Amino acid sequence: MLRGASLVGVLLFSKLVLKLPWTQVGFSLLLLYLGSGGWRFIRVFFKTIRRDVFGGLVLLKVKIKVRRYLRERQTVPVLFASTVQRHPDKTALIFEGTDTHWTFRQLDDYSSRVANFLQARGLTSGDVAALFMENRNEFVGLWLGMAKLGVEAALINTNLRRDALLHCLTTSQARALIFGNEMAPAICEICGSLDPLLSLFCSGSWEPSTVPTSTEHLDPLLEDAPKHLPSRPDKGFTGNIVGIGQCVLHGMTVVIRKKFSASRFWDDCVKYNCTIVQYIGELCRYLLNQPPREAENQHRVRMALGNGLRQSIWTSFSSRFHISQVAEFYGATECNCSLGNFDSQVGACGFNSRILSFVYPIRLVRVNEDTMELIRGPDGICIPCQPGEPGQLVGRIIQQDPLRRFDGYLNQGANNKKIAKDVFKKGDQAYLTGDVLVMDELGYLYFRDRTGDTFRWKGENVSTTEVEGTLSRLLDMADVAVYGVEVPGTEGRAGMAAVASPTGNCDLECFAQALEKELPLYARPIFLRLLPELHKTGTYKFQKTELRKEGFDPAVVKDPLFYLDARKGRYVSLDYEAYTRIQAGEEKL
């Protein structure tokens, strides 16, 4: 601001008082600008102008397309229909588990049968159907069939069990549940608590004795359903755009694997002639930990697309496996400030222009590191971060803009936590990502940490409040605080639970066995800390900041510490020797 005022002052003085010609005025302003540090702007301009123009054109192209799709009501099923017309006999999906190939015509027929069957069972546009199954071609067909009818698909994480699974199904307000036969045991565990009006359908091999009594076998029912395109729904839905979306919208062939295999990954890429792979950060580390094999040099993969690739292994990953482009991105289904790394800048999850930042209204704003509350200036507006300063990523909400709008959640309370006012200017609203990023001088953005009531571990989001509730119930309603701690050489944060135990006694073997039934593997705390009491804030929230800083170092923490031994399947004492092994990456977590 001071530099701008100085430039204006020189301009007025040179022209009005000295009455210099415009060429001399311009030269004077340039000298003053460069002399006051303005050369940084010129450096940034020449280093980023090509990137910014390309990014701006991509943004403009996407915005024009989305506006046209909305205006013409071209939903995903409508766009898929045009893809089928272009490539009816091209392979759309390959399921590695059985080497099953589906053409676009077959995927279209299957999804239409799904839509007509659900319509015959009374589901209409706007209803919800839950989908609970492992990866396979049918998963895509079921989701697409629901979209053709305008039915929202609630995609349930296959790791969930018992209370967590029941909570998700109940919250989704689904009228029907379609589950894979491999998920039958999990459904049987909660069938007594399910809504009696919830229709149950099992896909896959059929054994009536292994499913709830009210369950119907879906496969023969779909065979009898008509395969004509159902009537166009009142509303349409988007989703699954990163991976499967490229198949549905652009006619690419997608290879689906039941589960990730580090030892077979490159062999699969060679076998199916893959040119693009999708990753989450942990997968890249698993691949690097594998011994070298011939397939690494035989594949045709030119791009790796995903998120969570750590800066420390980025170069090793791209050079060892000969991948010319790593397209890291940042985003979420409800997020209005997605980012993309178009030029393989090592470690960056995207960028925002330093020259024309108003084109894409996102910002890093200062927050209180302990409470994560937004820090505001005297005018009540959030304070933007400078390059190198960590801050929370926010995006201005503009409901008329399809790329800037925020549609929210079913839970209004969750919406309130994600929206802040007076962020960019007075009277505006912005979406709060809850994630801390850092921007460098050129505008590249780097992911730093996840804040709030979640942390990420093994590629999954862990809800601290959910885990706290489960642990407290298993420990006779003891106070429990759950938080994430950093472990060298791993992606995300490992779960740690501080348990209020005045006596210090706890049957950890029974506790570990109970956790196996109650929580998915990624949500089980890796570390335990038993302490006399947990301190709370004035609003009765646990004070986790100090607990998080102290971590699991036995030299710092004097309370009893334990860690989950993966080989023994139970919690064992965490002494200095075990701590050293964990720090060195010698202990499997």
Give a description of the structure.
InterPro entries: AMP-bd_C, AMP-bd_C_sf, AMP-dep_synth/lig_dom, ANL_N_sf, Lipocalin_CS. Among the domains are: 3-68, no CATH class; 73-80 and 104-237, Rossmann fold (3-Layer(aba) Sandwich), CATH 3.40.50; 453-584, GMP Synthetase, Chain A, domain 3 (2-Layer Sandwich). 35% of the residues lie in helices and 20% in strands. It has 17 helices and 25 strands. The two termini are 51 Å apart.
Keywords:
alpha/beta; 6-stranded antiparallel sheet; 589 residues; GMP Synthetase, Chain A, domain 3; Rossmann fold; 5-stranded parallel sheet; single chain; 17 helices; 35% helix; globular
- The tally of strands reads 25
In the CATH classification, which architecture of the domain at 73-80 and 104-237 applies? 3-Layer(aba) Sandwich
DSSP helix count? 17
Beta-strand content bin: 15-25%
Give the oligomer, counting copies of the same chain as homo and different chains as hetero.
Answer: single chain
CATH class of the domain at 73-80 and 104-237: Alpha Beta
How is this fold's topology laid out?
Blueprint: H1 2-17, H2 22-71, H3 76-86, E1 91-95, E2 100-103, H4 104-120, E3 128-132, H5 137-149, E4 152-155, H6 162-172, E5 176-180, H7 184-190, E6 199-203, E7 216-217, H8 218-223, H9 244-250, E8 254-256, H10 265-271, E9 276-280, H11 281-288, E10 303-307, H12 311-320, E11 325-330, E12 339-340, E13 350-351, E14 362-365, E15 391-396, H13 412-418, E16 419-421, E17 429-439, E18 444-450, E19 454-457, E20 460-463, H14 464-474, E21 480-485, E22 494-500, H15 508-518, E23 527-531, H16 545-550, E24 561-565, E25 570-573, H17 576-583
Parallel strand pairs: 1-8, 3-4, 3-5, 5-6, 6-7, 9-10, 10-11, 22-23
Antiparallel strand pairs: 1-2, 11-12, 13-18, 14-15, 15-17, 16-17, 17-18, 19-20, 21-22, 23-24, 24-25
Helix pairs in contact: 1-2, 4-5, 6-7, 11-12
